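Here we describe the complex-level prediction in full. Unlike the single-chain runs in Section 2.1, the four entities below were treated as one system.
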Amino acid sequence: MKVFTIDKKDWDAGIEKTKSSYQVFGPVKEKEWHCFKALDKDEQPDMTYTNTRLSPKFLVQPQTEPMFTYTLDESQPDHHILKEINKDASPKAMVGIRPCDASAFLLVKRNFDAPQYQDPYWLKAYNAITFMGFACNDPCSTCFCTSAGCGPFHEAGLDVLLVDDGDRFLAKSLTDKGDAFMTAAGWKAQADDAGKIEAMKHAAESKIGSRISTGNLKAKETTQIYDAPFWEDTAFSCINCGTCTYSCPTCWCFDIQDENRGNSGVRLRNWDSCMFPLFTIHGTGHNPRGAKVQRVRQRFMHKLKYYVEKYDNGIQCVGCGRCIRLCPVNIDIRKVCNLMNDYDPAACVCPA
Amino acid sequence: MIMIQQPASARLNQKRGFTVQNPYLPYPVRIDEIITETEDKNLKTFKFVFLDSKDEERFAYKAGQFAELSVTGKGEIPIGIASSPTEKGFIKFTVNKVGLVSTYLHSMKVGDIMGLRGPLGNSYPWETMEGKNVVIIGGGFAFTTLRSSIVYMLDPANRSRFKDINVIYGARSPGMLLYRDELAAWERRDDINMHITVDAANDPSWKYNVGFVPTITEQKAPVAGDDTYAIICGPPIMIKFTQPVLDKMGYAHDHIIMSLENRMKCGIGMCGRCNVGKEFVCKDGPVFTLAQLTTMPKEY
Amino acid sequence: MNLMEHMGIEPGRLQFSWISSAESTKFVDVVKTVTASVKALGPNTNYKKQAVKVA
Amino acid sequence: MSGYQNKIKEAANRLLTEGSVDMVIGFRKGTLPMMNEPCFIRRPEDVHQLVWDSNCGINLANYLTDRKEKIAIVAKGCDSRNIVTHIIENKIKREKLHIIGVPCQGMVDKRKIISLFGEEILDVTENGDDLKIKFRGCEKSLKKNDVLQENCATCIHRNPVLFDELVGELVTEQTGVDRYADVNRVEALSSQEKWQYFEDLLSPCVRCYACRNACPLCYCPTCFVDESRPQWVGKSQDPVDIRTFHFLRAYHCAGRCTDCGACERACPVGIKVRQFTSKLNKDSFEMFGWEAGMTLDQRPPLDTYKPNDPNDFIK
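The structure predicted for the assembly as a whole is:
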């Protein structure tokens, strides 16, 4: 592990250099807010940004992703047989990704890189990326990363941790991939005060005023939290849109569809959301999560209980706060998480 | 080190530079035979043959597992495997006509090419049930993996591995029973006790039981015991009323085995929709004991 | 309620007509006018789904 | 504003205590500045949660659909017009409702403030037309009228049209506002420019359907975009499918939309969804002299026939 110092004057040139060996993605302001996009020649990531409005998960799991092609033309020898699509696995770099969003990929990876099955699309896209994370010196008021197993300087899931230190960046290379990226950029100067990152980290962490409690979630009985009385109140305002799930860096659910044009077609997958009734409806019309309250409960139970139980490795949330900021009706995962964590069926005084 | 065998389509794709096994890629199959099972013509059995006979070995399955039937251009549906691992040269599924894909499948013809992805999910707990009595309780068209199980247990190589086999199977009317020729053949055997029933018989020559499955279960199911496992598969209403009967008869909840259905897409525990609590019906199920189900939310 | 033209479908591409089953000449006339005006506009490239881009 | 809030609490307390309603639907304070959350109150002891300020932009009529209880609902002008529409369309029964009318002075557009200062809002205090907004390390003052939601800025029906009681004096309705300035601007464009305008408008859409789900008019049990047999619209991010969703949804609101702005407010990516519905509202007004939800006595123009309906589009 090496810590480099990058004079901000050398930053643009370094990024420009990496473009010859990487497709470089970075935060760019489009319309009113920032999003990750592939940087054109001479286009620079905006390193003054707070965070992107939507999560950068789409770079690994695009909202619409072709899986196979096929022909329905029976005069073709391979008609009706699915053919794989050659996915681009060339090296990519995500410059400026926030530590929460990078660490979210690790949570999602548990789903897509399971012992029994591996998702080739997700893994191929993920493995092609070098993550140059950008530490948060000034977290938002809705960030609660430090109590969600993450943090403003969190290193898990990153190849390089970049820290803004006034007129220079400090860059801590954490992996071989990170070293390779630093070499490609030509940044060589070692920092002589590497300890500074640690101090800045503590300063940033202390700025995070928003916390959740998760300690009791695992031990709670699933069916007890499931049957808790607070769900009706929690779910009332929900309009069942997909904003929370689509903006979330740790939501991965998808749908598979065949789309035909004439005799040729593509099997694709699209993001899907547990908020939508269609997500679970049976062919018979029966729907195990037919009511809004069931779907709202599913989202929180999945993130904060089922995932915790299944992987025994924390909650399925990194505390980025997007769902809180974007929810049209202000449903707040922090509030719900604490309700779940503190729920005691014995102490509950329910209205008769 | 596990050697992953490659399906024909994967090898075809390998030539194009792919190496990793893609769990979303179906084996190409041809429809070999289509049998209309029920008088309302809503249930058809499809017999598939793999285009590459080696894929059949790769598709080694156990009774109780399912597969995604991939109708190219329409989509996929998860269907329980109705043939038994002991039946070679083909694989069959009985499909109810309900949605987009199953309706289209019902209009397909012998010789048509489609895909088969699997085998998926766990199976009935064959190792646990070895040396035990097995009671199979089925209703309506949920008899498919139960047929697979019966054929499997009755296979000469397997019959001695199980003690008494009882089958309680009910449908609305005689014409709605699946696999009628086989049911009749099993009736004539003395190594399996068949209790076929219909809700109501309009056919005067009907010589079996009349009554709902829970009632017949109460009358015909063997006494409960450590040595006796019940497998239940059927419509929710049948399960709802059969379960208390088994309770009353003293069946322990870990001796009652059930197979769930939920909407599925990926079949491999990734797309997120079929979960019941933390378990995915597609990957961790579809077979659960009642003891397991009582700890899970009732989202099925 | 002309949202179609408002969002950029050219005037003349979408037309409405009321023709009784007895009005064969009107039917012929309308078809002629509609085809002529649509031909004059050329192919509708905007509101046409492109094939899914793979890879 | 605080007067309204007290009156709302009083009414809710009275109605729940005397048992004339099963629940009161209103707003409670949200967890974020400038966000209030729709809520229901069933017990008089919970009435204190109810709030009212300039951040109650969500249309509460959306929460009434097909409910069977006796409900008291807090309603500003647009909410009340959607309640009227709900009653006309048999989505709720008038006799099941007690409408607590709120004469409205417009709702604030939080995003306008954020884009004005480019900073995260930490706290807001409201005093009549004055807003004090706290950012990190500084405080700014603003006039509420400068940061209203666009639909509120041009609203001419701020007073509830249907109510059982009012929480304040009726307000003077705005006059001389140009409700269709945006529509007129687009109408002046060429076809190709119009196409491109909506292409740009919709480019950030992620199909979360927040616009649809926030809309009280969109109560279909299965929306056309969710139908699979036949599948009217593809499910991918194809721009043609996205556009089809938006303009067809707008058409389904033709002659029904009250321009409450719920769709635009809900959109997580800031799409001006009202660009579609405003055009239909303008046409409704110009062709039929119609504004949705103003009266229980008249059916909307598109589900009635009149001999003098404009029909010059039929060749």
